[in-house]
Amino acid sequence: MNPLHNTELDLNLLPVFDALIRVGNVSRAAEELAMSQSAVSHALKRLRLFFGDPLFMKTGGGMQPTPKALELRAPVLAVMGTVRGELLVREGFDAAVAHRTFSLCLTDMGELIFLPRLITRLRETAPGCTLRTLQVPMRQIPGVLESGEADLALGSLHAVPEGLFQQQLFTRSFVTIVNRRNRRIGEQIPLDQFLEMEHIVVSLSGRREDGYDAIIDQLAGQRRVYLTTPHFLTVPMIIEQNPDLIATVPRELATKFAGYKSVRMVETPVSVPPFAIRQHWHPRFHHDAANSWLRKLVKDVFDTLPE
């Protein structure tokens, strides 16, 4: 920081820096701050002038922070976290009149199964708020939550990152999906046939041992895994074109897939314990009024899901 300009920094500019470093987009930052894009651009111009650095550069992937901006990131986010968590919390959060963007770490499965319900409830209770979803590698989730880039991470994290708060939303079971044209598989699939067939495993990390259904290998023995992918939504299309492949996925997802008529469900021939879906958040935002309101909304939505 240029010491000659220390007394000239307008602290009202910090929320603009905070929003830009988190969302990397002027229009989304303006929406979150309830400002016009021109006002955000003007604030960024003043920040650049004060720090003597471009701070953010336009690229195909959005506004990328410069090394100077990355240097400023931690202290600015710490200040904003204190303001949100210890000062503004006293003012509460009025969802009916609030204007902000909530960001959620979700898998593609979460977007398909759970996001529509969240959108419906959010539009009813907070009409001025919007949503943004992120698909973040598991190892990066604590940092994304700590920085405020995401408000919550929703899903089944096999190894909950240390230091995060968590709340269980519900538990769900697994089921196996197969191609409808595969006549070798009857109404049930015996364990020996299950182990002989080639499997698709979904793993967000790309490693087989981190797959959602990794416990099957512990209970039934090693399967013949042909494909490991981080995406749930490609699985039914792959099975449709490759009838000899099968996959074990959460039951809600299999029900959605079965609606496309190319795959059907059979019970997995292994007694797999239910897995828990939880919401996770960082301690910095535990007392943040908006974050607290969002967590309650998410919990209420999932409490109404059918068993």
From TrEMBL:
GO terms for molecular function: DNA binding; DNA-binding transcription factor activity. Residues 9-66 form the HTH lysR-type domain. PROSITE patterns: HTH_LYSR. Keywords: DNA-binding, Transcription, Transcription regulation. The keyword Transcription regulation applies. Pfam families: HTH_1 (PF00126), LysR_substrate (PF03466). SUPFAM superfamilies: Periplasmic binding protein-like II, Winged helix' DNA-binding domain. The keyword DNA-binding applies. Belongs to the LysR transcriptional regulatory family. This is LysR family transcriptional regulator. The lineage of its organism: Bacteria, Pseudomonadati, Pseudomonadota, Betaproteobacteria, Burkholderiales.
